[in-house]
Design a protein that fits this description.
Hydrogenase expression/formation protein HypE; 60s Ribosomal Protein L30, Chain: A; Phosphoribosyl-aminoimidazole Synthetase, Chain A, domain 2; HypE; 361 residues; 2 domains
Length: 361
């Protein structure tokens, strides 16, 4: 029998689509933290609860922002809530995230962000100096991103019924003529590009939250990406997909794209830029950098013929200096993401169940 098994192993083709891993039971009668993690539980919540309640063709696109047709113009519209803890961390704060996160969601549809709204939920007892610091950080981030905070709202909840400060931002922007960026447009042969080193934001949050030291300070990568996207579109308007890999990290974003487009994604492990500090931190914490959140990075799917020119434009931009070609879109194993490892093997990178690092944005 052992000889037969060995022979089968040698002759049978390796098909990652046949690889499975038992998942924990996740029938939950109540909301758990994993429902907000950007992984499988989040996807189930959207599919089973929100999509049936609000179902419409615009929502069905499931992009980082919705593209609406109004008065002859195409308008990108997005909203997000920010509940990060701690409120301030190396490289940024809740205020930076609230602006950059929504600006980047708009940019992922190719839009030029223009206006934001800002809604604050404040817990009774929080120091006004803290609120002022967050608001000023938002103002500075908005100015840097070239957007205007045009409207807002404030609510206060009783002490013990919040976590200091929560912020919700919504934003609008205009999508240029001829630009059609959405996850369904990924095609076999597309080059997969990431705009810089991954994992910095999640590790920065964890280092402060848990009081951990990794030899060097790890700072969040939070930054606006609209100018970088504009530089890419100046090279070619035929960018197929853009995503900012926040909750669930690069792994979650690539899985969402693969499933939406019905294609496979093959990554080269050695090509993925992971800073040494992130490698060390993830090794210490037992995490995979591919699942760690980012707040100033994007992943792009572009035609192979345009990849070199797009990379050159990205390298010339401050937010794309570390851009790298990390893989390709393939027809094999549709809906799945696999990585060719440095040792010559292959592993499946599945959609995370919940979230490795809770409350990162």
């Amino acid at each position: 029998m052992a000889e037969l098994a060995s022979e089968a192993t040698e002759t049978a083709p390796v098909d990652p689509a046949n690889w499975t891993c038992p998942a924990p039971l996740r029938d939950q009668p109540v909301v758990v933290m994993g429902h907000g993690g950007g992984g499988a539980l989040s996807a189930e919540l959207i599919h089973d609860v929100f999509a049936p309640a609000y179902g419409n063709p615009v929502l069905a696109g499931m992009g980082d922002s919705a593209v609406l047709h109004l008065g002859g113009a195409r308008l990108a519209f997005s909203t997000d809530s920010y509940v990060v803890r701690p409120l301030f961390f190396p490289g940024g704060s809740l205020g930076d995230l609230a602006v950059n996160g929504t600006v980047n969601d708009l940019a992922m549809s190719g839009a030029r962000p223009a206006y934001l709204s800002a809604a604050f939920v404040l817990e009774e007892g929080v120091e006004l100096a803290v609120v002022d610091r967050i608001a000023r950080a938002m103002g500075a981030a908005a100015e840097a991103a070239g957007v205007t905070v045009a409207t807002g709202d404030t609510k206060v909840v009783e002490a013990g019924h919040g976590d200091g400060v929560y912020v919700t931002t919504a934003g609008v922007g205009l999508v240029p003529e001829g630009v059609d960026i959405r996850p369904q447009r990924a095609r076999p042969g597309d080059a997969v590009i990431v705009s810089g080193p991954i994992g910095l934001h999640g590790v920065a949050i964890m280092s402060v939250r848990e009081g951990l030291e990794f030899g060097v300070e790890v700072a969040s990568d939070t930054a606006p990406l609209a100018d970088l996207v504009a530089a890419m579109l100046a090279v070619t308007s035929d960018v197929h997909v853009l995503r900012d890999p926040t909750r669930g990290g690069l792994a979650a974003s690539l899985n969402e794209i693969a499933r939406a487009s019905g294609t496979g994604v093959r990554l080269q492990e050695r090509a993925i830029p992971v800073p040494e500090a992130v490698v060390n931190a993830c090794g210490f914490l037992g995490l995979d950098p591919l699942y760690v959140a980012n707040e100033g990075r994007l992943v792009a799917f572009v035609p192979q013929a345009e990849a070199e020119a797009v990379l050159e434009a990205m390298h010339a931009h401050p937010q794309g200096g570390g851009a790298a070609l990390i893989g390709e879109c393939v027809s094999e194993h549709p809906g799945m993401v696999v990585v060719s490892t440095g040792l010559g093997g292959t592993r499946v990178v599945d959609l995370p169940l919940g979230e490795q690092l809770p409350r990162i944005c």
